[in-house]
Amino acid sequence: MDLGISGRWALVSGASKGLGFGCADALVAEGVNVIVVARTADAIEAAGERLRSRAAQGAKVIAVAADITTQAGRDAAFSAVGGPGVNLDIVVTNAGGPPTGDFRDWNREAWIKAVDANMLTPIEMIKATVDGMAARGFGRIVNITSSAVKAPIDVLGLSNGARSGLTGFVAGLARSPIAGKGVTINNLLPGKFDTDRLASTLGAAAQKSGKPTDEVRAMQAAQVPVKRFGTPQEFGAICAFLCSTHAAYITGQNVLVDGGLYPGTF
C-alpha cells in the first residue's frame, strides 16, 4: 500500500532506538524526509546512518543531538527545516518514560520533571507546528504515550499521571477547528514492546517480587495473548499508517497496541 506521504517532512523525537527509531524507520521506508532527535550525539548519529541506508525514494535523514524537553533543543530540531515547525508535515512526539518506583519516594521535582517531559514537551511541539500544518492543509501528529494511560501500572505512577494529562489535552485539541483543515492528532499506546524501557520495568518488577529478571520476563510474555512482546518494527508500521493519507478520518484516538493484553471491550 502506498501511504501517500513520500516527500513529506517529519520530525521524530527519542529516535535513537526503540519505538522512536521504529517509527522513523517506517517513515523513511515510505520516502518521508525525517529529522531524528535524541540527546546523545553518538547514538543519534548512528541511528541516522542506519536510517539513511534504509531510506527509499531519495528520502533525507537529518540527525540532531538535542534535548527535546528544552526550548533550546526544540529550536535546534525545528531549525533543521528552516525555523520553528515551518515545513513539518508529520510530528511524532516521544520521550523516555520517567523512572519506576513508589509514589511515596517522589518529590515535587520528580513530578515536575515527568510532566515536563511527557506532557508539556509534546504540547510545545504541537504548538510550534500545528498552525503551519493547518495552513498547508495537511498534518499528522502522533504522540507515543503508554498502555498505562488505559490500564495504569502501580510502579509507573509518574508516567500514568503525566501521560494521562497529555491524553486529555489531545482529546480536546484534536476535535477543534484544525480537524477540518486536514490535521489529525492521535496517541499510540504501546504495551509490552522489547525495548530498553521494558527491560527497566522488568527489572523493577523483579526487584519488587524477589524473582529473577528472566523469570519475570517469561511470565510477563506469557500473559500477553499473542505470547510474546512486540517489536519496534511492528509499532513503527502502525505509526506510519496513522501518518498516511489513508488515516485522514482518524483523529483524537488512543490506539492501543498491546498484543491483546488489555482485557476490556472499550
From TrEMBL:
It comes from the Bacteria. InterPro entries: NAD(P)-bd_dom_sf, SDR, SDR_fam. Pfam families: adh_short_C2. Belongs to the short-chain dehydrogenases/reductases (SDR) family. This is SDR family oxidoreductase.
